[in-house]
Amino acid sequence: MHSRKKALLAATAGTAAGVVGLGLIAMPAGAGSAPRLPDISAEKLTESVLTADTPAMAGTISVDNNLGLPAIPGAAGGGDLLNIDSARVHTDGKDGKRVSIEKGSDEQTVISNARTTWIWDSEKREATKIPAGGRDVHRQAPAHAQRQLDDPTAAARQLVEKMHESSTVRVDGTARVADRPAYELVLTPKPTERTLLREVRVAVDSETRLPLRFTALTNGTSEPALRIEFTEVSVGAQPAELFRFTPPEGAKVNEERAEAPKRPKHAKPADRDLTVVGDGWDSVVVARSGQGIDEIAKAAGAGNGRQGTDPRAMLDRLGKKVSGPFGTGWVVSANVGNVLITEDGRLAAGAVPEQVLTEALGKTK
Amino acid sequence: MTATTAETPTPVASAARRAPLIRLLRAELRWVFRRPRTLVVLGLLALIPISVGISAAIADSSAGAAEGPPLFSMMAGNGLALSVGTLAITIMLLLPLVTAMSSADAIAGESAHGTLRGLLVAPVGRIRLLGVKAFGVACVALCAVLVIAVTGFLTGLVMSGPDGLFTISGTTLSIGAALGKLAVAVGWVAVQLWAVGAVALAISAYTEHPMLVVVGVLAGDILFAVLGGLSALSWLHPFLITESWSALPDVLRDPMPTEALTEGTLRAACYIIIGLSLAGARMLTKDG
After folding, report:
1. Is residue B70 less than 8 Å (CB to CB) from chain A?
2. What is the per-residue DSSP string for A228-284?
3. A169 forms bridges with which residues in the sheet?
4. Which chain A residue shows the shortest CA-CA distance from B284?
5. Would you say the ipTM is above 0.85?
6. Where is A168: in which H helix or E strand?
7. A34: contact with B, CB 8 A cutoff
8. Which phi and psi (to 5°) does residue A25 adopt?
9. Out of A201, B58, B148, B195, which residue is the most buried by the measure of CB atoms under 10 Å away?
10. Same structural domain for residues A178 and A225?
11. Is B56 on the interface with A (CB under 8 A)?
12. A276-327 residue pLDDT tens
């Protein structure tokens, strides 16, 4: 009887230890009390973010995408682009940069140094070589978030810069991100701005002034619409071989010429003729393609070598039909903004209510 | 088989009071690896990477997008990707089942045959007996992983020589570096299987029907996979061992991200502790 009791005791203790261990693993890392940091004014902090150089570092970025963008069948929708598992970033503080974007068990890696930039796609087993001075993948902004993600530092900086005029900027305490102490910089739109966004929070590393976390919050929700954050950061010199690349045996290698930057194959015709109406939080991007929506669909269908889906039926499903001085169109709503697509092939998008989009279309006529 | 059964207790009985551990472990290994079903299963496992490698090569040479499991597009002629990819496929169900079969034979099978009684009265501590049985299960699991890894790697080498070894990140590896990564993958998968084996041994200690052990592991595996797919239960996911298993392709990235792999190892260690303590409790309280 004695040994039985002891055995049960040992088993209970062992099982409990195992379960507690599992619980510890389940605890989110980096959750801790807010660190104590010396006070800093919002202006000074913003300025130091804008002027700081990216140090040599390695980090892992996770993306929590709650934008609510509708999935567009057969097209690379905006929702798809941010639908990544994580990205790993390495930089030597100078020209060497390496970004690996993980999607499932596939990876897209952009490796650049002073002379060349390589883009590697593991799914297609394809490597693209771009000599320096050609298409700068890290800075070119084809209005897609994926490119911005390549260099979150630059992206956040641009944003802070642009929003300073139309926003109230303040420092809202401190936080611990990726186990590093950080200041929380909060940008709130001024009351005159007509936007769906409530505030944008950027956690700034107290030491390197690197933006560690970017959170966009919309009116009426407590869950962030978009959160891009470092889950792991280690500042320090990186091995030089990380910034060199030799395509593996059997891979398809494309070379791009420096003087003739090619336009991405899948660029939508609507990308042409872009104008920005307004500034600050309620700026609206207006694009006109010069073609009606039916012709665009026909062209896209022919290019893909398959029957294009009926654009009208698709838009009917995704959005609601509206009409006004701009003609007839559809409004597709997401958590952070609205997109208005008209029958004559114009497109207006912004983090704004529908009415602002209609006005912007009227201004560009 | 009856010959080996009779043989096992003999050296134990002739020993003074405690049989030397090495001899016990050797006897258990002989006993496990003489079972025809163990050998047949290991032989069949060797066929999987070969057939996956051939189908990947066929899919690669024919035009059009290759539809297949994760990493499939990389597997043609890449021994490293073929090994790790096949491990990633088989860890989901097949390898846990092999481990469960071995655990079922270890304790429940012995009690079904009536041979466990003899082992329990032998001058071997019961915890020691459990340790020996766990060692046998661990060896079968490790062998199963090694068989897949080695055949996969050799298939890749035969198909395209040592040039085709590259990672998901596009870096080309030397044979030595590739073998290093393969060793990490083998060790990691083996630890995951040991966790499954520990839980299976616990079930095995509580029943005398070997079938129940296999069914239990199969049901648990499927249930965990279903729970893991429900996003409403995301708080539960870190507790599920199946959640770690999708991290295996990380081995093929360069530089290797260790976060998910380490977490998976720790999770497996917790399962090993839980499984072995439950099994130990039952062994100590079992009627001789």
Report:
1. yes
2. EEEEEEEES---GGGG---PPTT-EEEE--SSSPPPPTT--GGGSSEEEES-GGG-E
3. A187
4. A7
5. no
6. strand A167-177
7. no
8. -65, -35
9. B148
10. yes
11. no
12. 887 778 888 888 776 677 776 666 655 554 455 677 777 887 888 888 888 8
Q: Per the structure block, which two tokens stand in for A188? A: 């709130």
Number of domains chain A contains: 2
Residues A53, A117 share a domain: yes
Mean pLDDT along residues A336-364 = 83
**Same domain for A246 and A161?**
yes
Do A275 and A245 share a structural domain? no
Report domain extents, chain B.
21-285
Query: Rg for chain A (alpha carbons), in Å?
Result: 24
Q: Does one domain contain both A291 and A249?
A: no
Clarify whether residues A239 and A355 are in a common domain. no
Asked whether residue A27 is assigned to any structural domain, the reply reads no
Q: Are residues A354 and A216 in the same domain?
A: no
Shortest CA gap A305–chain B (Å): 14
A251 and A306 housed in the same domain: no
Q: Which residue of B has its CA nearest to A118?
A: B170
Provide the residue range defining the domain that includes A70: 42-255
Of B257, B259, B285, the CB nearest to A7: B285
CB of A21 less than 8 A from some CB of B? yes
- Tens of pLDDT, residues A64-95: 877 776 655 444 434 445 567 788 999 988 88
- Residue among A315, A289, A176 at smallest CA distance from A232: A176
Residues B22, B135 contacting (CB under 8 angstroms): no
